[in-house]
Amino acid sequence: MAITRLPSAGFSITIRIAMPADASSIGRLTTSVGEAGAIVTALDVVDSDPTHVIVDLTCDTADASHADQVVKALTALEGVDVRKVSDRTFLLHLGGKIEVSSKVALRTRDELSRAYTPGVARVCQAIAENPADARRLTIKRNTVAVVSDGSAVLGLGNLGPAASLPVMEGKAALFKRFGGVDAWPVVLDTQDTDEIVSIVKAIAPAYGGINLEDIAAPRCFEIEARLREALDIPVFHDDQHGTAICVLAALTNALRVVGKQLADVRVVVSGAGAAGTAIMKLLLRQGVGDIIATDRQGALHRGMTGLNPAWQWLAEHTNKENYSGDLRGAVRGADVFIGVSAPNLLTGEDIATMAKDAIVFALANPDPEVDPREARKYAAVVATGRSDQPNQINNVLAFPGVFRGMLDAHAEEFTEEMAIAAARAIADVVGEDKINPTVIVPSVFDSRVAPAVAAAVRAAAQHPAPAPAADPGPADLPEIAAEASATP
Question: What string of H, E and C letters represents the secondary structure of the chain?
């Protein structure tokens, strides 16, 4: 059976099966699953008697239809009785993934009187007299709002606020697990820019930071810019800045592997939306040799008509040779490909046309811009956004530590210096003596990452770099961008 998508834990199922208790039964099960293109991850005996055995077989599949095909293949085996099929992802989400718990005991009248009325009144009065005390005496010091309007949920599109909630819950859980930050989903039943800005401004007093999530471009750019101007707490759009930080960190180590310098390489970016624009801005600030930005219309170049302000700026400040063709042509001779767009845009043969010791970051999820198995035949370093592939570039490497550092420093804004410091910290966690083509970023479960990022961000917040000279540069990029889209 030909499976074009790779099996993953996101489509993991557990199948309860009754079958004859003979020596070959287990082998027939696992063989059938393998032939169906799935991956067995566990097999547990639930019950048995002298003639039959009941097992729970867990396997990773590629998607829902593939899972159905696996079940049908098992059902067709002689003597096998499939009794129940459980989707492990849906089971994990039952009832939601986060909850509120109290930090203080409420066992006696004495404790209740201090935590709530009448004692709490004294604390309220203290904050009224000195609003800065809210950081010290309330959850504000360690709490982030994860704000979304559901207009760009993962790669699924405009699903609305209710459907975005599982993602925002997951984000909040990651904040707590990796950064010790208390985060809460705030999903808004509006996609009006003015209304979103107004709502977030109104709720901001309860939070020490705002994390914007899954808000479509170009609206996300304006919302972020206006909130950063209006609020005295950091506003961070993870789809932009978190992605850019992780890509810069990964690219730093990938270049170390192949022995190239950022100033000498040509980078092709597929997708000039929120993530792609932020990546290019950060790479330009770091002195990349050249960048070609591509989107549905092909490469952005000078003389191209109908461009919005952000794309116009990119056309004027990238693509030194003014290439005007398609993505496949752009990657010929390029040192680095970074995809933040859509699946299956390139083939292994396209990667073969890149420069010697090419670097490929194909980050579209769940299916990357090029099959990583094909890319590895020709590229020196390959990374994706998938957890089941080497070199996973995952924003969880960045945002928990970034917010931990900003909250600890009582920062009032997120800066580019913080982004660069965070990227360096992530890259350095691996260590130059440890990096190789399959290890350019640390594991998301590496306990050193978030503290290192937090320390770097805290230092950048407390000792900001001098302001750069007033000349045009990437920081002048208009805070408006086109819809994130894919090159055909």
Answer: CCCCCCCEEEEEEEEEEEEECCCCHHHHHHHHHHHCCCEEEEEEEEEECCCEEEEEEEEEECCHHHHHHHHHHHHCCCCCEEEEEEEHHHHHHCCCCCCCCCCCCCCCHHHHHHHCCCCHHHHHHHHHHCHHHHHHHCHHHHEEEEEECCCCECCCECCCHHHHHHHHHHHHHHHHHHHCCEEEEEECCCCCHHHHHHHHHHHHHHCCEEEECCCCCCHHHHHHHHHHHHCCCCEEEHHHHHHHHHHHHHHHHHHHHHCCCHHHCEEEEECCCHHHHHHHHHHHHCCCCEEEEEECCEECCCCCCCCCHHHHHHHHHCCCCCCCCCHHHHHCCCCEEEECCCCCCCCHHHHHCCCCCCEEEECCCCCCCCCHHHHCCCCCEEEECCCCCCCECCHHHCHHHHHHHHHHCCCCCCCHHHHHHHHHHHHHHHCCCCCECCECCCCCCCCCHHHHHHHHHHHHHHCCCCCCCCCCCHHHCCCCCCCCCCCC
265 and 211 share a domain?
A: no
Question: Structural domain of residue 66, as residue ranges?
Answer: 8-93
Same domain, 194 and 305: no
Residues 449 and 323 in one domain: yes
Predicted confidence at residue 379, as pLDDT, reads 97
Same domain, 256 and 388: yes
Residues 298 and 445 in one domain: yes
Q: Based on the fold, state whether residues 83 and 178 are members of the same structural domain.
A: no
pLDDT, average across residues 126-133:
95
Q: Is the residue at 14 inside a domain?
A: yes
| Whole-prediction pTM | 0.87
User: Is 249 among the domain residues?
Assistant: yes
The pLDDT, as a whole number, for residue 460 is 96
- pLDDT at residue 274, rounded to an integer: 87
Q: Which of 72, 116, 320, 377 is catalytic?
A: 116
Catalytic residue among 84, 140, 171, 320: 171
Pair (405, 259) in one structural domain: yes
307 and 416 in a single domain? The answer is yes
The answer to whether 171 is a known catalytic residue is: yes
User: Is residue 328 included in any domain, yes or no?
Assistant: yes
CATH of residue 176's domain is 3.40.50.10380
* Residue 116 annotated as catalytic: yes
Torsion of CA 316, 317, 321, 327, to 10 degrees: -90
Residue 351, domain member (yes or no):
yes
Number of domain units in the chain = 3
